[in-house]
Amino acid sequence: MEAELLKPLVPQRPLSALAQRVSEYIPQRAAVPRREGGAERALTGFRDVTATISGSLLMEYRDMFGWGGAGGGADIDERKRQLLQHLNSNGKYHTFKEQLKHAVVGVVRERYGNRTGFSDSAHCHAFLSSLYTFLSDQLHVGLHQATSLDNPPETTPTPVDFDLLKHFATEAEDFQDYQLAERHYQERVAGGGHVGQYWYDYGVFCLLIGQLDKAEQCLKEAIALDQKMIPALLLFGMLSAIGERFDEGSEVMELATTSDPSNIIAWCMRGLFYEMQTERVLEEMCYEEAVRVWRGRKERTYLTIGGGREGGGREEDTIRARDSHREGTREEEEERDGEGGEGEREATTGSGPSTTPGEQQDLSPAEASGTDEPTASSKVEVHPEAPPTTEAPPTTSGDEREREDPRSAVFLQTASFLLDVHALKFAEMCLGHVVTSSSSPPPSLYHLLAARLHLHRGHYSQARDCLTSALQTDIQSSWAWSLLGHTHYQLGEFPEAQQAFERCLLLQTPPPNQHSALLHLAHILYNEKKFSQAKEMYLRACRASPSGLTWRGVGVACYKMGELGESETALCEANILNNTDPLTWAYLTLVCLKTGRPVEAEQALKFAVKTGLRTGEEVVEEIRQEMTSHSGDHAHQHIPHLLTQLS
């Protein structure tokens, strides 16, 4: 007797088919304006120096001999001798020579890639002859530009996509590349320092890496630019409490609650602030006010947390919260859910938070979710009139929602926000209140948040236990499966991590950190030499939230499968999105070597070395092996020399 199911017991989300060609996922864009690279910048500097020196020499000549011309050849030689003697006597000859020497050294290093001496005198002589000819030509070019009456064309600066920079930063945080992430945050602040949201995001990142002083300065800048930014006020008050500046923190917390009296998280965090001072009366007053506001929320809400893992404003994490009432039949509820499922997920973008984190109201424990890293603004937009949707089915029934403890719900909601902004001490206090405020077992969301807390602290075994408890309550929680995959990944349990990631991606509700799950799954498949499957996962990540990392993954996977054309297309796209990645340049070097383009390979390798390619990388050994097949080839003679310059 055999039994066959027509539908899976756990509903699964069908994966859409991928295109056959990588180029179909690359968006149409205008021609990228040509930028000055290292070699061109060095040449420009050489021309500018020669033009400046020639102008100074002309002024010295006119001071000595006036504006009249020389009579004959002998007169010209005499004036030249007198001018050189004058320049040597006043030290200007040495000054001009030093200025020119630095410019020549820059040209040699950037254009020719030579940073060391020559062991062969013949090679050295040939190089000097070639260099002299080249510099003489460039000298005439510089003099022509200096004496030309034509104005040089003005270059329009390329606009900066600040949301894309935020996506790159959070992606770097996923793989704990904090140096790269900080650079992206600094680029946002440098280009949009007048936007308080960018300072706030940088401050949240500083909390992640433990730089509290720098985080406080960033939050001060954010508040100075937007004094009604509730998340910044709350975090600044929290840092004041950590620094035991309670008077200052009390004023900031009071400002946050008076600016938005309906903000649950603001009231709860103010209560935590008083708890640190053992002000029991004020503490309890704030908690009761938070509960009172929570009880007052009866309308259905549609929540959108801005700028999460899906790409910093490109594809936002969405959470739908249903307020199931006892009135009405189950058929009516399902009909409303079906109508809501047709709506598209909205993405919130902007320079500042339009609403505050305290507006996450009336959430069930399993639905009040957030990313496992900070959102771009830690803000929540509330759409009371939005219809329900079938994308995020509630994990608790309406009756369970009615029995939900309001005090626990308030602390769970606040703990989720605090984990988003890496305020671990305050988040732990909230989770402690959840345990002590109710006699019933903790809800599923408590175990998820406790797992996030353990993940932040590196306690991966405890996080795995918490996620196991959460999945016993809700086996269809894609968020729990995703976090479980990250936990196994950190523990080095890659087969278990692969199963967890694949499970979370098949569930109907996508996890909040889907981009991170795709990248980690692709990395696991690549390490297992399943290049075709790894390419598929990277392409899915590219389709949702393209970045230099995702396109580099596609390019490397294609290279391993021998698809050199597809690999070059993907690597070039990765280079457009991030031209400071040494691995992208290194694999472009390999592709150029494989396709018989030694000059382009040499140029790509120069940029790889310049951007920090290290000797221990796998791609370096592949380049060396590829060079063994070209030994004795004059066209490849500079590449081994460049490999010796790796750090």
Automatic annotation (TrEMBL):
Quote the biased-composition stretches of kind Low complexity, using this chain's numbering: 348-358
Gene3D superfamilies recorded for this chain? Tetratricopeptide repeat domain
Q: Which organism is it from?
A: Geodia barretti (Barrett's horny sponge)
Q: Which SMART domains match?
A: TPR (SM00028)
Q: Which PROSITE patterns match?
A: TPR
**Disordered: annotated segments:** 304-406, 628-647
Drop me one GO molecular function for this one. identical protein binding
The terms describing its cellular component in GO are: extracellular exosome; motile cilium
Q: What is this protein called?
A: Cilia- and flagella-associated protein 70
Q: TPR repeat ranges?
A: 478-511
Answer whether the UniProt record assigns the keyword Ribonucleoprotein to this protein.
no
Q: Which GO terms describe its biological process?
A: cilium assembly; cilium movement
Range of residues in the leader sequence: none
**Superkingdom of source:** Eukaryota
User: Which keywords annotate this record?
Assistant: Cell projection, Cilium, Flagellum, Repeat, TPR repeat
Ranges of Basic and acidic residues composition bias in the record = 311-329, 338-347
